[in-house]
Amino acid sequence: MAFAGASLVTDGKLCASTMSAIDSGADSGYHLLVVEGYSRTKDTTPNGEWIKSRPFIVGGRRWTIDYHPNGVSSDNEEFISVLLVLRDDVEQNVEVQYAFSFIDQPELRVPKHIRQKRTRLLLQVL
C-alpha cells in the first residue's frame, strides 16, 4: 500500500506545515492523520464540527478525512467520527474499500472501537 501523505492536527487545528496532496500513483494507499493534544482538540471542536485533513490522491481521486472529535451529530457526541470524503466531481459511482485504525493504541484496534467499511459507492461529495 502506497503512502499518500500526512496531516497533523495540533491545538485543535490542522497544522499548516503538514505534507499534503501526495499522489500515491497507486490504486491503494494510506493517509496518516496525527492528532496531537486530543483533549484540547475535543474541548475546542463542538459536536457536529470537524477538522479536514490535507487532500491526498489515491486511485486517481482526491480525498480528505473529516475528523469529528465530538461526533457528527448529537446522537454520537460521546464518540470520535472519522469520514472518508471524495473531493472530486465524478460522473459515475466510485467503488472504494477503506478502513480506519489507531496505530499507537493497539488496545483500541478491535471491532468494538473501529468500524470498517468494505465496499461503498460514492457519488460527488462536496
From TrEMBL:
<dbReference type="InterPro" id="IPR045005">
    <property type="entry name" value="BPM1-6"/>
</dbReference>
<dbReference type="GO" id="GO:0016567">
    <property type="term" value="P:protein ubiquitination"/>
</dbReference>
<feature type="domain" description="MATH">
    <location>
        <begin position="28"/>
        <end position="126"/>
    </location>
</feature>
<dbReference type="InterPro" id="IPR002083">
    <property type="entry name" value="MATH/TRAF_dom"/>
</dbReference>
<dbReference type="InterPro" id="IPR008974">
    <property type="entry name" value="TRAF-like"/>
</dbReference>
<protein>
    <recommendedName>
        <fullName>MATH domain-containing protein</fullName>
    </recommendedName>
</protein>
<dbReference type="Pfam" id="PF22486">
    <property type="entry name" value="MATH_2"/>
</dbReference>
